[in-house]
Amino acid sequence: MKLNAEEISSVLRAEIEKYESQVDVREVGRVLEVGDGIARVYGLSGVMAGEMVEFQNGVRGLAFNLEENAVGVIILGDYLGIHEGEEVRSTGELLSVPVGEAVIGRVLDPLGNPLDGKGPVVTTERRPVETPAPGVAQRKPVHEPLQTGIKAIDAMTPIGRGQRELIIGDRKTGKSTVAIDTILNQKNTGVKCFYVAVGQKDASVAATIDVLRRYGAMDYTTVIVAGASAPAPLQYVAPYAGTAMAEYFMYRGGHTLCVYDDLSKQAAAYRQLSLLMRRPPGREAYPGDVFYCHSRLLERAAKLSDELGAGSLTSLPIIETLEGEVSAYIPTNVISITDGQIYLQPDLFFAGIRPAMNVGISVSRVGGAAQIKAMKKVAGGLRLQLAAFRELEAFAKMGTELDAATQARLDRGYRMVELLKQSQYSPMDVIDQVLSIYAGTRGHLDKVPLPQVREWEQAFLTFMREQKSEVRKKIADSKDIEIDKATDRNPELEACIQEFQQQWAGKHRSAAPAAAGAAG
After folding, report:
1. pTM above 0.70, yes or no
2. Active site residue 40
3. Which of 281, 432, 450, 462 is deepest in the core (most CB within 10 A)?
4. Nearest-angstrom CA–CA distance, 318 and 246
């Protein structure tokens, strides 16, 4: 076999041209001790705070504490496979998660790994988990409503796109239900939803995902899960990961909603990490920077300026109180960061008033700016009326005799409370809410027996949709309602309600003899 010198020289020349001298220079340290989701590492003197490090078995960690002789690392994964003396490499990267359309409809862990068995998340784009919040000049005031579909909230504590509204209350008072109803109500609105479950039972999260699937909400929702069995570092990182995924759409002019369920458990996970790292404990054993932990997260919710695309990220953080203790450390912190709170009260919940919103304490600091004009006109004095009703009700329980005017106010209050009740997973269209609240506040339900209030409401809304569709369409198109200042009423709607009242009375008159005959 003859060797061709020219061929050999051309191959060598090509190989030399393609050759690149690359030296992989990375710092390597060793694990001093490991346990409970953290590791102490010796030798990574050049590592930076928040930098990713990689352990020998491929598990990643996050440089959390920079000490004189060692680095405290929180382990983002199974720490049981890491042993003392093993190598740790610095990566020179920040913690990031996959973002883009590929994450929509998926169930992921806080690192972006799929948990739904639908294969890997196929996207080339990633975004750092921790990014600075938009500055003052990059924002504009909240002015667009984000409808929750819950009458009591949309009428009295409205939420706008870009707002941070806290949902607070004891366990089992319907906090998650309010958030899930809000997600269900975003169907066909173009709002992408991100539900971050922190420290919850896997069974509860599975039930929530099942509800979202059943009602078709998973088409525009991403669920990020760091369950009760997940290590504390993952529970701590989860809300930031969810926010990073939502920010991707916000900075592209989209509208997003982020639910953190719940931040009490995230704060407890952060406390665990801080105490293991021997950071000095403060009030309730939380570290001194737990406020910053939540403020830098919630400040990322914003309504961006027109120059940046006018996108928005709305936050609904959830906080669990113990025995209604709103003045505890974490609740007071988050109340001071958010733009209002929806306070759910156990007494109201167990009395069957659901959502169990305490009207006196609940508030939205954005107010009417986040309401359509029709709702603003119809529900203007509703909060004050209901707060006054609660006081009057407490007074009436003393057994004192009431005059006719006071009794009439009480009766209307009872009917308004009944009207504002709503079943879970049944969000309501905002125009239906306007019609319903108009009828209640203008006294059209005063003569309807209390047990029939919700039946009357359903029948009235059906009547408006089927027989008076042109009146309903007029309100829906303009999102406004003409109110006569002298009478505080809308003549067109008044005529519709009068007609409906006759139909309702006729139906119930004919039903009464039939019932009597059946009884006989």
Report:
1. yes
2. no
3. 432
4. 17
